[in-house]
Structure formats: C-alpha cells, structure tokens
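On clarity, I found the account of how folds are encoded harder to follow than it need be. For illustration, here is how one protein appears when written out as sequence plus structure tokens.
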Amino acid sequence: MEAAAGVARIRAGYLSSKEQFHAYLKAESGSQEINQVDGEQESTSNDQNEPPAKRLKLDSGDQVGKEASQGEVEEGAREKEEPRERKRARGQNKNRPCMKPTHYEKDRLCPSVTQEHAENCRFGSQCRFLHDVGEYMAVKPADLGDSCVLFQTFGKCIYGVTCRFAKTHLGEDYRNLVNEDLVKRWEGKSQVRNNLSKELQQQLRKKKVCFEKANKYLCHLAKAGSKGGNKATSGSAGEKGVTNCTASRSSPESVGLKPHGEKAQDLQVPTEGGDAPKPVAPQSPCPTSESDNSAVKTIGSVTDEDIVKLRPCEKKKLDIQGKLYLAPLTTCGNLPFRRICKRFGADVTCGEMAVCTNLLQGQSSEWALLKRHCTEDLFGVQLEGAFPDTMTRCAELLNQNIEVDFVDINVGCPIDLVYKKGGGCALMTRSNKFEQIVRGMNSVLDVPLTVKIRTGVQEKVNLAHKVIPNLREWGASMVTLHGRSREQRYTKVADWEYIAECAKIASPMPLFGNGDILSYEDANQAMQTGVSGIMIAR
C-alpha cells in the first residue's frame, strides 16, 4: 500500500484487517468475564469466612477457652502461610542489625594488662580480651616507627605494649620502661590550663557567683545615669546567669565611705518613743560566709588596703613591641593550631572569640576556647559582647579563674549575627556603650586590656582615627587595627597608609597593624609604616 504524497508510510506491524480487529475485541471481552467471575468467588469466600472468635473469660468454661485457643492457633498458621510484604525501615530504625565488627576484639589486649594491674580485671572470668602479652605481640601489627613522642617527652608512654611505637620503651618480658628524670620534671605540671571546673560550672548555672567589683562599677553607672536624668546605662542589671550581689562588708561603700571626698551617709532608723533616729551602717544583701574568698579580711577600722585601688601604672605591662602576633582566628585558631604556629615562630597568641554571655552561663564549649598550652608564654583571650554589665562581669570572672597575660575586646567582627546585636563592629558607632565597656573591664582586670578594631563600618567612612584617642583615654593598653571596613569584610586591599596615620595618632600607645601580611616581604614593608608590630591572620 503506497502512501499519498506528504503522508508518512505506516509500518507493516501496525496494519490489520477488519476480521483481525473483531477477533481481538472478542478475546478481550472473554478475559474480562473470567476476571469478574473470579472476583465474585473471592468476595463470597471472604463473606463466608467469619472473624476469629474472641478469647472469653475463664469463668465462661474451659471448653470455650480451648475452642478460642484452637482458633487462634489456626489463624496464626494461616498468617504464616500467607507471604507478607517487607516494610521499608524508616525513622531511627532501632531494630536494624548491628554491623559493628567484633573480630578485632579477639586479638585485643585487656586494658587491665596495659595499665599494669591484670589481677584487677573488672570483667573477671567473662573478659573477652587477651591477657597473655606474648600471644598479643604475636598477632600485633608492625610498629609505625622507631621513636615514641610520649616516651621522649614525658618519660612514660601510657599505652605500653599497645603503642604502635613500642620498640623504644619495651624491655624484657615486654615491660614498659620509664624515664624517672622526665617523669619527675613533669610531676605536678599540667600541659593545658584554664580548664572549667565542675564546681565553678555549677555555681554559674545556679547563679551563685558574686561579682563584687563589677557590681560596684555598674552601681556607679546607674547613679551617674540617674543624676543626669537619663536611663541607667548599665544594661540589664539583673542579667540572666548572674546574681545582683553587692560588695562585701570590707569594701569602702559598705561602711559608708565614698571616694573623692564625698561624705558618708548612714541609714537613719527611727527608734521607739519618738527619740532621735540612730545611724545604722548599711548591710550587704549578699551574706558573708566563712568561705568568702576576699583578698583582705579586716575587722574594725578601714585600712588602706580596703580603699586604695591599683593604679594604672602598677598594672602589669604588655611588652610586645616588635613581636609577631597571631590573630584570634574564629573556627581556626584552636589550641593545636596555635601550638604549630608557636613552633614556627609566633610570639604572641590569642584564643578564639568567646561570647561573654555563654561564658557567664558556664557553657563548656565556650570555656574550651580559653584553654592555654604550657608553650604559650604570651597568651590572651578575646571577648565579644554588646553591653557593659555582661562584659564587666565576664572580665571579673576570667580575672579570678584563669591565667592570661591580656584580655582583648572584639570590635572588628563583621558577622551580621554579632553586628545586629550591637557587638563587634557596631561598638564603633555606639561610643557611650563602648566607653562603659572599656572603662568597666579595665577597672576589674589585673592584666592589660587591648582592643581590636577596623577602619570603620562603611567602606569610605573611616572612624578609627576618632576612636583611638578615646581608647587611650579610657585605659586601653594596646590597639590592633585591621585595614578594612565592615563592608569590605575580607575583600579588597588593606589600607596600610591609613594604618600608618593611626599609628601616629595612637602614640605613645602601641598599635599593631593587620591585613594582607602574606609573606616576609609584606611583613617587613608593614613594619616600616611606624606600627609597633604586625598581626598575622587569614
């Protein structure tokens, strides 16, 4: 059959006659009838099958109970015969098979043998580990090297025969050797300091920590704000996570003394009978106990040690002129990274940015950022916050519980989460809060206070040259300037000409420059701009 012009030709497989088409329809109708008959038979059989008899109570007769039990057995056998579709495991899938390999436990040495007290195995006769050192050494993989770092450093390897470098510290009968000289040298010393104790963590969580110096400063701010007719500038005095505890009785305010020649005022309590009121010394709402850890405890008249404060010139000096400063790198500058940089020549190290509110709540993850290794001889911590109450209390908390050489305030963080809450770069535009934070932290710290800032918030509007003279007046010991604005973040080139101008303005206060130090040539060129030192960052 030839197709007309412009019409595609039909394949031979799709061509059929009229008789073939009618035969196909008859075959289809016959199959549908057969399916209908089968469906009716199934429905009738389902109707005839009665539901299984329920199990009656025992008092209805033993025979009834037997019949019910027989029905249940028959139903269970019928369910077993019928194949069930396997359900897909979803959710937590707690019934999944345990895939943990157990073959390695057969050749594993018992921990009691490693710790050299095999007779006190806590598993007893049910222990599935090896207790024969010779059998273990026969199946143990070959050592990875010839020198064990733990044995060479501390004089003893705590892993014993299980160490993959055990050749250097194994003697006869596979006994672990000990270098007594190195062990005595490290006795009583800890490699990592500034750990959070459980006792302090519980006190922070229960809000039982007393911030004597911080609360005294915040009360002074509240009085200054009320006298000026403004609201109290100390933020939320009842901040969650801290207690509103006033100074102890040995402080000058507790006995009615005020600095700068102000007269002391006693509380006037009227007596019975209309007599003249008698002066009563004000008492602190925070009860004093025998375990009070105040620096000086006196009875009677006030001594000079009670009222004389530490002068700024008596504070510990931060001598890092011309030294290499490793920047506090968030999510990167952890303790192992700082140890490596210290080995490569870094002079000053600083911990990652820690949020003051999290520290006051006793979060272990935040306190881990404050850890200090024994090789870090010049070490500081960096705090981030937006209000003077939390920052001042956090500074006092760290001053009492950790060992640092300086505390740094983060005023350069460009992250939106920090900036929108008023912290980081936002403090450069909040001069009142910025001043209260710096003055408050400086009043409660015994170590120098440093500040890290940027050129400003907007790209072409520099603010650092206005902020630096104020920081010197407020009591900051050093300023670090990153030559980029918040809008630039970490893009474009750092403005070292502006850093050089700010270094002249900051004098005699030291100023460190930061930004685009990628090689030795960059560092040498940056030192010629007049800065006191350079900070190496990303």
Q: What stands out?
A: The radius of gyration is 40 Å. The longest strand covers residues 349-355. Confidence is low (pLDDT under 50) at residues 230-244, 246-297.
